[in-house]
Hints:
By secondary structure, this protein is α/β, with parallel strands linked by helices. The chain folds into two domains: 140 residues, Response regulator (Rossmann fold, 3-Layer(aba) Sandwich); 124 residues, Rossmann fold (3-Layer(aba) Sandwich), CATH 3.40.50. It has eleven helices and twelve strands.
Amino acid sequence: MTHKKTATTGDPDRRSTSETINLRSRLLVVDDKPLILHLVTLVLNEAGYEVDTAEDGAIAWDLLQLTHYDLLITDNDMPHVSGIELLKKIYAAHMSLPVIMLSGTMPTDELARQPWLEPTARLLKPFVLVEFLETVKSILRATENTTAKPRPQIMPGDAAPPKAAAANTPTRNPTDLSRRILVVDDNCDTRQLSIDALVGSGYDAEGVIDGVAGWEALQTYDYDLVITDNKMPRMTGVEMIGKLRSANIAVPVIMATGKLPMDEFVRKPWLKPEAMLERPFTNDDLLESVKEVLGTDDSQQWK
Length: 303
């Protein structure tokens, strides 16, 4: 059973701009404990949000396939489908949806093994209402202007961009396969070697000169995989991964660099990429990592 509550209190003419924005935000709250579900819904309704609820992850998953939500707030320990299992379903379906995990226990071991499942925010029960509402507000504010942009369809045989193209324009090497890979590296020779190896193996690969150009490309086009250096001017590989995670762009990442920032990954495990390579490595090493990351589940089509 599900129910929806919509806040209608207050004089509409006297609402602030932020409250008007809140009324356009639709949230899904998932928890198997009726008291928690009621409390969270009540608090969000009073803050001006439109709220739907679900008593477990299975019901939530059905709702997510039928309705657009701006934010998901979910418990972890639930019957039928847990919070982490719900995150896996969302990730596999490529839903661009920010998630707050609000739970008494966090699946830290599983998130450490699969950092791409890291929710946008974690809050432990019992939680402070002010902190909870601030987290909701900050996530919705950050994602308010983030929209997915379709990539242009470039058919096989299209000419690659001229060499004098702008620095932030991906250098394109079209093939007839759908696996599209972005190589981010400030060393032009290393970048081109990787692109050549990928194209030679049948992938659709293109390159950009640094993390800023990579981030711009990832906001404009869809990719199946990103291969990135770490130490680059303007934006490092780790910083670019952080932006991807914050924007809920579900694309796997291979970090291929001279020195892996392991200390940073230990401090912030949600930034850990799906695979890592430390130079020097061979083309075979690179291609094997690409195959492992893209071939983990052949039924998935990263978009």
